[in-house]
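Hey, can you fold this?
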Amino acid sequence: MNNANMMSKTAEIAAPLPEKVTLPVLGAAMHAEDLPAHLAWLVDGARDLEIQDAITPELLDGDWQARARQINEILQPYPGRVGIHGPFLSLTLMAQDPQIRAVVQARLLRALDFAEAIGATHMVTHSPFDFFGHPMVVHAPAHGLAEQIDLVAATLEPVLPKLEQIDCTLVIETIRDRHPRPLLTLLDTIDAPCVRMSIDVGHVYIGHLLGGPTPDQWVYEAGPRLAHVHLQDTDGDLDRHWPPGMGEINWEAFFGALNTLPVRPRLIIELVDVAQLPRAAEWLTARGLAR
């Protein structure tokens, strides 16, 4: 599916680097109820913000318009870029059953209605790849990858025009991915500027302990197709979503890889306890990795 002609002014959400390279700016993910506590920090830094309310089916089936109005009232005026985390509970982009695929499409389109209502220019969705094999065995067309990509393309067929219409980019987040190649092959096949990669650093670190590449190597492999990052730390035993510095991730190596890119992905601190956001930001800024 070639959608190379689907260009928009905000499709490339990873901003080009300025001539004089400066430290990357940290953003954060949170629900609407957490905005007042962190609004000053977000506004002062014109930071990227990710609203996570649209994850839940209760919002999408309820009065999401009222929630959007509430968010707009809190954020006006807001100098930074806004995105959302889209729905993923019980959903997969790789649905083979046409009726299940229709449900996934409906959820994504409703979430994009919510995104449009708050002026969001990115939406996170989850990678569908969960290869039942050794990480050193590349998930390739001979192992079913081509058929899986066809299923994802079918799921996204009505979603891509909506993304283009509202100037929003779908960023596909690494979840159980053990190797970058399947997700990159998916992006190359869809070939739409409104679909890019998102790396969750904690997720790929757990994958590394199971035989996959290190988090920094994921960045090198993704290159300019990387538009979004979830910053969270872990010890590798569980998906902790701890503040950076609490776990085992080599953050110097990860940010060093980010600094080689020709673009700046949105850097979203995503914590299980949003109250620890100041601690997370201070740890990274104190080490000269971001601001």
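Oh, and this one too while you're at it.
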Amino acid sequence: MLRYSKFKVKSINTISLQLIKKMTTKVLYNYMPFNRALRRFVMQYRTSFILLFQLAVAALSYIASFYLRFEFTMPPEYFRMFYETLPLLVVCRMAAYYVYKIHTGSWLFVSMSDLMDTLKAVLLGSVLFVITMVFVYGLDEFPRSVFILEAVLNLMFLGGSRFTIRYSYEFKQRALPKVRKYALIAGAGSAGVLMLKEVRSNPGMGLQVLGFVDDNPYKKGTNIQGIPILGSIEDIPDLVKRLGIDEVIIAIPSSSYKNLVRITEIARRARVETRILPSLARLIQDDVVANKLRDVSYDDLLGRDVLKFRRESDYRLLKEETGEKSILVTGAGGSIGSELCRQIAHFRPRMLILYERHENSLYDLEIELRKKFPEQHILPVIGDILDSEKLSAILRANKVDLIYHAAAYKHVPMMEREPLEAVRNNILGTLNVARLAVKANVNKFVFISTDKAVNPANVMGATKRVSELVIQGLNGDKVKFIAVRFGNVIGSNGSAIPLFKKQIAEGGPVTVTHPDITRYFMAIPEAVQLVMTAGAMGRGGEIFLLDMGKPVKIIDLAEDLIRRSGLQPGKDIDIVFTGLRPGEKLYEELYWEGEGILTTENRKITMLKPNGHGYDDVFQKIKLLEEYIQKSDMEGTLRLLKEIVPEASIGNGLNA
């Protein structure tokens, strides 16, 4: 019965509050035009109203002090004295109020410092009034106690009225029903106290602070403004369970970045939200706090201008190449493939086919493209590049004119562990798509290669080199086969930069394999634009090389990323060297010794002369590779791969 009674009372209170809120809202709605007009009028003449109020307070305090002095039976002769001296008091009071700017302070957010200013103004006004009375009126018959009584009453009326308005406003705010969350404040210092005051004075935050946590053991068991210090930072998970905490507010602005990450990680493990109170200096400097890292532009990290469409001729060339064509992109869900689809869609092809093996990335890309290009005909297809039957049907049914082949395994260390998969996907997959393109009378085939294909030190690079040879060997009258070679794209899925950003967000360390390792980098949109331009320029059989600027030291890239995140390398975030991984080179090369370089009309694109490779021999060995793959013969596969690409340094550490 007791439980039922409590529930009933709670329900009635809740319903009452809801009814009050609805009635209040209705009244405010009906009188809103009047309220707005009145508010505008009051705010327009705010200073005048305040000065009138202060004048009235001065007069009221003065007459009240006389009545108190004479126990509410003031003799008639003192009425004359009151009227004669009242103007002097008002002038002194208003002058003192002006000196301390009492009329400019906020009444809704009055604080103790405002009260101190009011006290100073009252004391100054009283001193001025006493001096004025001595020289103008004299003190022979004037009751001395009136000076003290008037000052006390003036302070009470003036300060009390301001605090009354403030607390009535806060009470009204608290009276409104709010959705509340229970919070802990991490840090029982001055910032924590400020945070507590802010939460209490701002009901709109919807928070109720249940306690503090602090790593100072001497603070445990004490309280701040009635709120207990419950334990240390490490106690957060236990307190979350015990008290039902919804949120942890970190109020330690002077703390190191590593400590802030430690606290947020403890809160994350306890499955509660975190908010961070930054220091005033960091707010002014737009500095980074905890896990709210500044968004770093990948283009900034390149240290050079990123290519954008500047020439009308480039735009016309790509419009002619892709507009009103049926285009298929393999590996459409990857970093390069998805950007290819975005840029192709701008030129309004007749059909854009997204060929991708992974459903999630394909789904996300389809949603994005349909939103940005609602009129574009898009066909998303889940499929493997080794699925000849399905791919052939797609090519013939949609009369594909142009293929961009971006599907490939690219992770060097992973392909060192899985060389059979690398050969199956990168070589046999490319050969399968290329042969089907010939059968389906596709006009052009653009293959995405890599600088790792030059003197490859890993399986992935060797497979890409063999794929280049396949493309050149199949080029003929029916299909124009073109390869485009470039280095790393900055910010691609699974590459170093996203890993560095994740490591920085976790407080470090950032891992770099070697202090001298360098790589060529391009922005993804820049690389794709040049790939499309090179493909449009190609007449068949070419390998194009993109201008990637100067090679970048990975250590410099890591340090730059840390600084651009608002932190200091070695101080906030450590950098550790882990050693070169299997198949990894210190630096990449752009072309083979036997390949000549020819300029093109686009200064960002050069063309490589073929070095006269025997393509018939390549295709025979690829056929043998396929047999080794079917038998899962790793040793035979690697040996044959090295025969096709004798310059490749592969075969070490593959079974590790």
